[in-house]
Amino acid sequence: MRIYFKEITIENWEECIELKVSREQEKYLPHSNLKSIAEWKFNPHWTALGIYIGDNMIGFSMYGTLHDDDPTYDGTMWIMRLMIDERYQGNGYGKLALSELIKIIKNQGQHKDIWISFHPESKTNLNLYSHFGFKQVITGFEAEDEVFYKLEL
């Protein structure tokens, strides 16, 4: 079945905040979808999208640039959030969503790479991002709960 994205709006934001990962995965997410939506509302260069199959929102993604209004902006796009609700995990939807998200970012044509960070113990994230060619980068910002990976476009 085909996945697609819809912007988070007043009509679907509550559905988005009801999405959950499994209890075991909670330690890998720094905060809730509700907090991500709040951050998005204050960052005009970010995009928040529900991930859908049919009429069902199955996940949430948020991406954007950190400083594209700054003259020193270096062409980096960030994926700040990519999650699939626990009821829909294990069906390849995360891989489909990431594939489509990469296409969307590439089609914008103005970014040199995509960065993402995740918890270093999350083997699922490591496998997913590595599958698409993301490579670990050492930035000096690493912490016990975060590693950074980059995909050159």
Would you write up a description of this structure?
With 153 residues, the chain is an alpha+beta fold. The chain has one domain (3-152): 3-Layer(aba) Sandwich (Aminopeptidase). 25% of the residues lie in helices and 30% in strands. The chain is built from 4 helices and 7 strands, in the order E-H-H-E-E-E-H-E-H-E-E. The chain has helices at residues 13-17, 33-41, 93-108, 123-131, and strands at 3-7, 46-53, 56-64, 76-84, 113-118, 135-137, 147-152. Strands 1-2-3-4-5-7-6 form a 7-stranded mixed sheet. Strand 2 and strand 3 form a beta hairpin. The longest helix is centred in the middle third of the chain and has 16 residues, at 93-108. It is globular. The mean pLDDT is 90.
What are the main properties of this structure?
acyltransferase; diamine N-acetyltransferase activity; Diamine N-acetyltransferase; 7-stranded mixed beta sheet; alpha+beta; 153 residues; GNAT_dom; globular; transferase; Aminopeptidase
